[in-house]
Hints:
The structure holds two protein chains of two kinds.
Chain A (H helix, E strand, L loop, with lengths): L9 E12 L2 E13 L4 E5 L6 H8 L7 E6 L2 E2 L5 H10 L1 E4 L11 H11 L7 H11 L15 H13 L5 E5 L7 H17 L3 E6 L2 H5 L3 E6 L2 E4 L1
Parallel strand pairs in A: 3-8, 3-9, 6-7, 7-8
Antiparallel strand pairs in A: 1-2, 1-4, 4-5, 9-10
Chain B lengths: L2 H14 L1 H39 L4 E6 L12 H8 L4 E17 L2 E10 L3 H5 L2 E5 L4 H5 L4 E4 L1 H8 L8 E4 L2 E10 L9 E5 H7 L8 E6 L2 H7 L3 H6 L7 E5 L1 H43 L1 H9 L4 H38 L5 H31 L3 H6 L2
Parallel strand pairs in B: 3-8, 5-7
Antiparallel strand pairs in B: 1-9, 1-10, 2-3, 2-6, 2-9, 4-7, 5-8, 6-7
Helix pairs in contact in B: 1-12, 2-10, 2-12, 2-13, 10-12, 10-13, 12-13
Amino acid sequence: MLPGNGGPLIRVTRLSKHYSNGQGVxxxxxxxxxxxxxxxxxxxMGPSGSGKSTLLFILxxxxxxxxxxxxxxxxxxxxxxxxxxxxxxRRQVGFVFQNCDLFENxxxxxxxxxxxxxxxxxxxxxPERIAAALQRxxxxxxxxxxxxxxxxxEKQRVAIARALVNEPLVILADEPTGHLDRTHGHMVMDHFxxxxxxxxxxxxxxxxxxxxxxxxxxxFSLEDGILNEx
Amino acid sequence: xxxxDLLRVSxxxxxxHRRRYWGVMxxxxxxxxxxxxIITMGRDLKxxxxxxLELLGKATLIRVYFEKRPSFAYQRxxxxxxxxxxxxxxxxxxxxxxxxxxxxxSWQGRDYNLAMLGVDAAFWQVNGLIPRRGKFFTPExxxxxxRVVILGPELARTIFGRDNVVGEQLTIQQELYxxxxxxxxxGLGDYAHFAFMPLSTAENRIMRISPANRIYLRCRxxxxxxxxxxxxxGAIQAVQPAQGLKVEVAWEHLRRVxxxxxxVEFFIYSSIVATLILGGLGIWTVMMAAVRSRTREIGxxxxxxxxxxxxxxxxxxxxxxxxxxxxxxxxxxxxxSVEVTSLLIHSHPGEGLFLxxxxxxxxxxxxxxxxxxxxxxxxxxxxxxxxxIRYE
Lengths: 230, 392
């Protein structure tokens, strides 16, 4: 269900994250504010170690924030139980990581089936949804291939299809073109653009590549834990 | 996660990494096969072991007799007493015997003193004796008091200077007797020096022979001996007077046999348990290794929305599938082993017992899989997502 009256999908206010080690506290994010609306493509740029991935992980509830507020469709995300966090990841979020991270010994079909298994989608409904997701990244013909037989670009497109298969409201992509050459990088961004343009899915992509960021509607930079819109 | 998906994914995982799991599977399968064979064939093996022990000693033999005392009446056992004793649970056979330790015999002008036993048809089986040459008494010999005799091999050699004496004539108390057989058998013992004739012949023709006042009882297993012995006086008193009755058991012999058997069983069961424990440790080790090598996979699945319990269920299901598959393999090996053992000892255990053992083996396998897979599964389920995703 999308937020009514054009409200933000994601609203983050004064979000902070710090790590503690034996010698003291290391701040990573300092009072981050961010709003993302349905159908937006948002890029977060910054140097290595600036906290881009940490922000993405917090938005995907893979990591807890130290303080601040995070609302998704008006719901307080930081108060969710572990089970509710898993439910949120199953239903609302799709992740794409830098290393493709497919299950190498499984087929493309099996890779895309896992999110549906965890979402308890009936077995007979799965082939259609998997085929549709693969269609969106032009890889329907690879459905029964082994994942470890695919090229790097194909693997990343399968990872995108896997992120899409449960029809999430937001895709969180961590350096999705980091390991790809320019041609395949463009191809991946083209697919992201088509997906966002086709519906209300939002995309937040973390990158240090200006060309990737240029494909997004809004660009933020993260430096010293502070997020600024360019 | 649906149960069907859980099993499908687990079995697929096992098949794809089957090389990793072969050793563990084999260990559990051997343990299960041993377990099934021992339980299914145990009773028959014990019976066979008993039969073999009969050749070596008298552990399962009980002697029942009337003590000779001047004040006691002259007593003999009735045929109905013998039947009552045969009906006791744990008794495999019983034999009635009369004896005369000094019987005059002669052959070619030379005299000999024979130790003579009058025996019934069950005597040979009760004492584990077989004919080396010739044959045992026929029912007609027993019924019509025929003048036939069977000799121990040493006695045959003493009288005739050889043991191929079947058909020879021997004079006993001035009557001619035909030698029917010469005995053999590892359990022969003192009987090598004895002469045997049908009980009816001995009672009707041999002077001053004792009444049939001695019964030999053979129990099925040595475990039955201590249960049968206390029942004997009551069973006899229910049929006839039992004054001066003596029940004699080779307790020391029995205790030694039981001790040996206990240790044999202990070592067999210990080896099975040890094999299963090793199998369990094997499952634990390979599952721990699997959790470590699949750390990124666990992180990714959690990022997709897998709950902790789904991750735990998956690894637990893999461990259980592994042990159950091993148990099924063990059941197949056990079936072959039971069939081979049955052929070797000429025994056919019930199918019900075999199926019960297979079921028990499966239950043990499920327990083993759960016990061995629990900790690795817990480890997997408790992993932090980000650390797992970033694991190299």
